Amino acid sequence: MAFENYTIKDIAKALNLSTSTVSRALRDSYEISAETKKLVLAYAEKINYRANPIARSLKERKSYSIGIIVSEIANNFFSQVIDGIESVAYAKNYQVVISQTHESSERERLNVEHLYSRSTDGLLMALSAETIDSSYLEELMKKGFPIVFFDRVPGQIKSHKVIADNRQGGFEAVQYLAKKGRRKIAHLTGAKKLSITAERLEGYKMALLANGLDFSPALVKYCEYGGLHQAEIEKAVAELAEEDYDAIFISGDKLTTGYLQAMKDRPEADVNSILIAGFTNSKVVNIFSPTITAIRQPAFEMGKKAAELLIQQIESKYAVDEFETIVLPTTLIERE
């Protein structure tokens, strides 16, 4: 059965309204009364009306699409952020285009340039582990191209940013380990240049100080690709084995699962003697062995807020020069 292609003119004729009134009602314009909006939306739903995105974009000079750039879609955290973004974007009639960097700054730049050249209306992005120079992003923003950063954010660029409270999350993780009587707490983390690495390391140090524990650089191991390559985790685990640590704070999803795998591959390691707390948004963290006390980020909420800020900026009639940094709390989920 063929679908009938209804237009705004059809709705206007059926309801005895002007096409401009129907158009504004469908866009939830403040100029239209709540009663008229209700009437138009009810009829549009009844006839299964769908806006023509090509005609709309030509008329308004907008593509009604936004780009998302993350390191890896398979990462639990990023997949949940994307769910949050989509929940807002689709409600506002925007489509999303998702790209992965696999922690490559070159691929990140190619993705940005591609999405910009394809006339997406704006970008939501978390920086790659390799990214040092983000000046090209600043140049795009100066041209009026909206970019909202989340999770891994550039410190020097003025823009909307949505992050978790990484310092507090790191502090609570190490505080938990210290309260369990652990005195030599290691830290497995990502690339030094990332904002989340610095913030979680700061939380780690704060908790050591609060519990009268010394900070030892030998107990901190960096994985420049955040666990994307298992070999870098195995190297860090082998080096930590020389330090006789009794607990570990891990700062990322991939690092957490990678650490467990690396420990299982070391038959001489007493895995169960080391208490683990780490950032992970895995939905099956309760079946990890050994158990992990999880620091969970509000990933879905982070995606929603980032999308709201981006769409507000896209639809603003004036240039936006005041920006927010939204900090969302983390949650510690204890596992015995």
From TrEMBL:
A single GO molecular function term of this UniProt record: DNA-binding transcription factor activity
The entry's keywords: DNA-binding, Transcription, Transcription regulation
Residue ranges occupied by any HTH lacI-type domain in the UniProt entry: 6-60
HTH cro/C1-type domain segment(s): 5-50
Highest taxon listed in the record's lineage: Bacteria
Record-linked CDD domains: HTH_LacI, PBP1_LacI_sugar_binding-like
Cross-referenced PROSITE patterns: HTH_CROC1, HTH_LACI_2
InterPro entries according to UniProt: Cro/C1-type_HTH, HTH_LacI, Lambda_DNA-bd_dom_sf, Peripla_BP_I, SBP_2_dom
Name of the molecule in the record: LacI family transcriptional regulator
Originating species: Sphingobacterium allocomposti
